[in-house]
Inverse folding.
């Protein structure tokens, strides 16, 4: 098993005719993702990688049948409209790849998603990948690389950084540890499926035996994961690394979400809180594979 | 996040009918005097700076007369606080405060909704108020589609034990504040203190508004030049870097100058990351080696080679760094040789004389490292390229070793082949050129191209917009106007690969406004 994506999911690509949209559609298709349609307003009737392009999401749905997931490769200012279009058409999971989406647009998407019973990964996400089953977004870049780097196994991987999502899974794989699913939750302050929600997904997945998490300073995501562990809602072993130890309060390092404000979301606070509830927190990133191996050996 | 000055925030509040003290901003003591005369009452003179605790450093003064206002302005203007030089003061009427409140709106990541906060006491920060007077603080989430309704706001105020007309007025004010925050897409908007005057009016005595960086493009009227978070005013190089980023939407270029006015041998390293998480991790690795950062830079999200080149050039302009460290997540989904080309061009042009260690792991990493290591012998310094199986700590240790080694050698000239140093001068009689999307120019010296056997530029071109003419020289296979619109992605293949694997007839000029002069 895996979470969010496997070979049975029917996937739409919004913005399929763009530079990134077309390139990443090739990755997804080559890796085995069932991409059933694409949408670009005004470009209906064309095709990309053999996949039919429609003008609207509803039109795509009418022609190809039910759509489980939509992946968005849309310029940031247009994301709000495209996301609402997918939600209104009945799509229940969105993967919002672009970064720099205005935060109030994200709040509007979140509100509409909540009312419609839909969810979204991102924005500012590299995507989701279940080894040998399917990929959403751009993890791996090319299918050949994704096949070389990742293989199935017992560990769930979740990260607030895109590059780290791949590198964590790669270094785990090199140590002989495969993954159920890799999730890049997104680098922004407000994301649709933050770490705590991903942990609950992994909790429900019988094949996931442990979870490796890359956290960062800023936001309350890691603290809320600790709350879930404390409440008994997330029971699987968690191995974590928190980035941004050297960052000063008030200075933003790259990720919009990675900022310490008013003493909240600090490195020390996150590490202490996770350790308090029994999670394994490593000091060095490269210690993750070893620590994970040790945890798995005890299961 | 783009912070607004107090006077800018008050202007927005006023636009939404919130009462603010009468006043205006002044940049000289004379202007401050004139504003005070206009007001005709005792005034406050307040430093306009993004710092807390202005009063404790003498940044807020009372003035009874216009002369006193001028004097206060003279004392405050030019004041240096936390690296920030005060350039403006706000001169405004004194408010006769009978009671203080706190009102704020923030974006709550947990609830994915705006959060409105009100406190029956004000003056200090909301964290302190919440700790000391938990019973006087009330909060509510706002339905983003519905907005904050008057009755919700009044009920919020009621929860702090306030009733009657004051409750009604405070409720109305909270709706106005929310509307300001929503309209201008504020990550945070606070009025603190919110003053109740002796004659019963509510006045915003001070305010702090921070606009979402990503929404600044929709609010040109705010005149925000740098939509970035700084705890001090941006430096000259930060402004130059921001202009590069603003002029090129492809990928992300994030630049913070961490040090100024340092000397050689002081242990400062130019840090160039790729990807937020990997950058922070790699930064920690350099710091663990005992070095200090001259810059924190992140080029990620599949930036073109030209953007990486410009980033590197700006990093090299920060001062006499002891080394250059490039490292990101290490297992990048994007093809890494574009970044390698950008660094190659920058290091070659600058004739980099301090060691560089660059970790470009991920797709096409072999090609990336090959390009980087081709710098050896072409520049005085040593360059080492690493891949995904090399950890940031290992790479940082390599940089340390190279820096130690270079210190021992005392800058001997290490160039093995002088001719390798630079691209050949171009002959203007035989050149073919076209412009690129960021104001660059691509030029081929066809006299040199005619001698080229590999014609590597055709293959190296990322967008496949080159063809060979009858003489076997590269020309565009699209209209020059389309190349300029962005069909030429500035991949630098026709310069770097041409130099390494061809005859060296290709040259790309990429201006960096503000830096070149």
């Amino acid at each position: 098993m895996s979470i969010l994506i496997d070979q049975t999911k029917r996937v739409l690509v919004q913005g399929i005719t763009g530079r990134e949209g077309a390139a990443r559609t090739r990755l997804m298709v080559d890796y085995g993702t069932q991409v059933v349609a694409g949408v670009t307003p005004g470009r209906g009737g064309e095709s990309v990688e053999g996949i039919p392009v429609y003008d609207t999401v509803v039109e795509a749905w009418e022609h190809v049948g039910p759509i489980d997931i939509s992946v968005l490769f849309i310029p940031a200012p247009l994301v709000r409209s495209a996301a609402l279009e997918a939600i209104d058409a009945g799509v229940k999971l969105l993967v919002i790849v672009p970064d720099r989406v205005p935060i109030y647009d994200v709040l509007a998407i979140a509100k509409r998603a909540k009312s419609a019973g839909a969810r979204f990964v991102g924005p500012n996400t590299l995507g989701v990948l279940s080894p040998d089953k399917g990929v959403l977004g751009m993890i791996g870049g090319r299918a050949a690389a994704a096949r070389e780097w990742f293989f199935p196994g017992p560990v769930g991987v979740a990260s607030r950084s895109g590059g780290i999502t791949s590198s964590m899974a790669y270094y785990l794989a090199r140590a002989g540890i495969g993954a159920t699913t890799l999730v890049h939750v997104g680098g922004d302050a407000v994301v649709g499926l933050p770490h705590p929600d991903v942990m609950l997904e992994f909790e429900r997945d019988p094949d996931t035996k442990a979870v490796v998490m890359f956290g960062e300073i800023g936001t309350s995501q890691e603290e809320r994961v600790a709350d879930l562990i404390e409440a008994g809602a997330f029971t699987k072993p968690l191995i974590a690394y928190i980035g941004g130890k050297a960052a000063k309060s008030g200075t933003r390092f790259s990720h919009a979400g990675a900022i310490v404000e008013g003493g909240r979301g600090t490195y020390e606070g996150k590490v202490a809180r996770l350790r308090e509830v029994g999670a394994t927190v490593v000091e060095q990133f490269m210690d993750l594979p070893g620590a994970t191996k040790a945890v798995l050996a005890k299961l | 996040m783009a912070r607004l000055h107090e006077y800018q925030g008050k202007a927005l509040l006023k636009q939404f009918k919130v009462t603010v003290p009468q006043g205006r901003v002044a940049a000289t003591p004379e202007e401050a005097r004139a504003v005070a005369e206009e007001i005709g009452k005792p005034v406050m003179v307040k430093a306009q700076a993004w710092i807390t605790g202005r009063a404790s450093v003498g940044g807020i003064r009372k003035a009874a007369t216009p002369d006193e206002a001028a004097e206060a302005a003279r004392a405050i203007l030019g004041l240096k606080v936390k690296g920030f030089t005060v350039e403006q003061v706000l001169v405004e009427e004194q408010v006769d405060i009978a009671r203080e409140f706190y009102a704020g709106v923030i974006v709550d990541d947990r609830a994915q909704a705006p959060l409105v906060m009100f406190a029956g006491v004000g003056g200090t920060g909301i964290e302190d108020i919440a700790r000391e007077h938990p019973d006087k603080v009330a909060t509510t989430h706002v339905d983003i589609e519905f907005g904050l309704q008057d009755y919700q706001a009044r009920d919020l105020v009621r929860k702090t034990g306030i009733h009657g007309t004051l409750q009604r007025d405070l409720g109305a004010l909270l709706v106005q504040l929310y509307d300001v925050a929503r309209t201008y897409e504020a990550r945070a908007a606070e009025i603190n203190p919110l003053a109740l005057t002796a004659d019963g009016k509510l006045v915003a005595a001070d305010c702090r508004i921070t606009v979402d960086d990503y929404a600044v493009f929709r609010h040109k009227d705010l005149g925000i030049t740098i939509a970035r978070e700084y705890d001090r005013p941006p430096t000259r190089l930060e402004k130059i870097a921001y202009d590069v980023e603003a002029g090129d939407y492809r990928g992300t270029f994030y630049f913070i100058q961490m040090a100024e006015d340092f000397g050689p041998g002081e242990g400062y390293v130019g840090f160039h990351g790729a990807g937020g998480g990997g950058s922070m991790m790699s930064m920690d690795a350099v710091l663990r080696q005992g070095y200090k950062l001259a810059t924190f830079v992140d080029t990620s999200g599949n930036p073109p080679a030209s953007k990486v080149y410009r980033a590197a050039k700006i990093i090299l302009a920060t001062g006499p760094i002891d080394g250059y460290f490039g490292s990101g997540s290490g297992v990048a989904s994007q093809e890494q040789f574009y970044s390698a080309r950008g660094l190659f061009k920058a290091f070659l042009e600058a004739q980099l004389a301090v060691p560089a260690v660059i970790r470009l792991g991920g797709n096409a990493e072999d090609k990336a490292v090959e390009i980087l290591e081709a710098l050896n012998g072409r520049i005085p310094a040593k360059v080492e390229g690493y891949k995904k199986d090399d950890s940031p700590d290992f790479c940082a240790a390599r940089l340390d070793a190279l820096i130690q080694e270079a210190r021992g050698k005392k800058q001997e000239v290490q160039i093995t082949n002088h001719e390798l140093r630079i691209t050949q001068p171009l002959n203007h009689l035989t050149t073919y050129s076209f412009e690129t999307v960021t104001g660059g120019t691509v030029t081929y010296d066809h006299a040199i191209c005619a001698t080229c056997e590999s014609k590597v530029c055709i293959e190296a071109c990322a967008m496949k917009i080159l063809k060979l003419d009858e003489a076997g020289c590269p020309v565009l296979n699209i209209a020059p106007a389309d190349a300029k619109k962005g069909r030429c992605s500035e991949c630098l293949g026709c310069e770097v690969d041409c130099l390494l694997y061809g005859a060296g007839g290709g040259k790309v000029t990429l201006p960096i406004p503000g830096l070149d002069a």
